[in-house]
Amino acid sequence: MADFGIEGSGDVAGVAGVGTGGNAQAWESLFDWFFPLGVLGVGGPGNGFNAPNGGYGVCGLGYSPSPIQAVGLADPQDAVGVYGQGGAGDSTGVVGAGTGGASGVVGIGGQAANGTGVIGTGGPPTGVGVYGIGSWSRPPPASPPPGNAIGVFGAAGDGNSDGVYGVGSGSSSGVVGIGDTNSGTANGTGVHGVGGLPTGVGVWGTGASPPGTATPTPPPGNAIGVFGAAGSGDSDGVYGIGNGHGYGGQFASGFAPLRLDPAATGTGHPTGAHHNVGEFYVDSQGSLFYCRRSGTPGTWVKLA
Fold first, then answer.
1. pLDDT tens-place string over residues 153-196
2. pTM, entire model
3. Which of 40, 49, 41 is closest to 19 using CA atoms?
């Protein structure tokens, strides 16, 4: 018995299939880039599609002892290159495994039409659209929380790893979170961060600094909700601006709403550099000072 059901060899492709109405010649301009191929599939519209442009180049279905329902495309006019659907049970539609430092699956959007490289849509009612896990040893490090239809879920792998990492370009953000703006009652959250047990930080923000510059880290033993560290130069760790009758910052606690760290050394108010009206300062002995007029060093009043 032969090792393969079908064997083929050729200068362009070992095995080629063209659907009804398909046009393999439309792809000849790419021959110098991608060929020779082991398998070439070019879809055609045929009679089973609702639109004249639909068609699958390669369609792979996992085994199932009984018929399974095909998953329809959001746009029936999509001329799909490769379609994969899992079979019976909890099966995977497409698996890609890279070698060396290459990726298992690469998605590249249309270059002239703002195309999306990868789109993931979770299954109803609470499936995950895109599920990413860093390099890990079994069992998996984390799973999506139940009952939540998540667009993108990222779980860190072994060691000190990141679940999701984004790098912006120009003045754009690496990661953007926007709450539901289409509902007047949803009150969706743009970004929700929960620190790991026992003392992880929920959201950690650090201002820009040159590569290799040491930046402050959260104090140990404190499960902080939001930690902000200033970057290089004269930078602020956290900056808040209120709107209308709102406050730039509001703090509440049954223990003490606010604490100012005392200076490490020295007594009295600051005596060097420029200071602005509205500043508070606590010296090493616990005395509290308020700057009532900007200047160098400014005009200070001892409050306590």
1. 888 888 888 888 998 888 888 988 888 777 666 678 888 898 88
2. 0.69
3. 41
Element (H, E) at 34: helix 31-34
**Domains held by the chain: number:** 2
Task: Give a yes or no: residue 56 inside a domain.
Answer: yes
Distance CA 98, CA 15 (A): 23
Write the pLDDT tens digit of every residue in 200-216.
999 999 988 888 888 88
Residue 73 in any domain: the answer is yes
Could you tell me if 16 and 3 are in contact, meaning their C-beta atoms sit under 8 angstroms apart?
Answer: no
Task: Tokens 């799909």: give the residue.
Answer: 80
**Residue 185 in tokens:** 């009652």
Written as six digits, the tokens of 17 are 């299939």
Domain boundary among 38, 63, 88: 88
Domain that residue 260 falls in: 252-304
Residue 44 belongs to a domain: yes
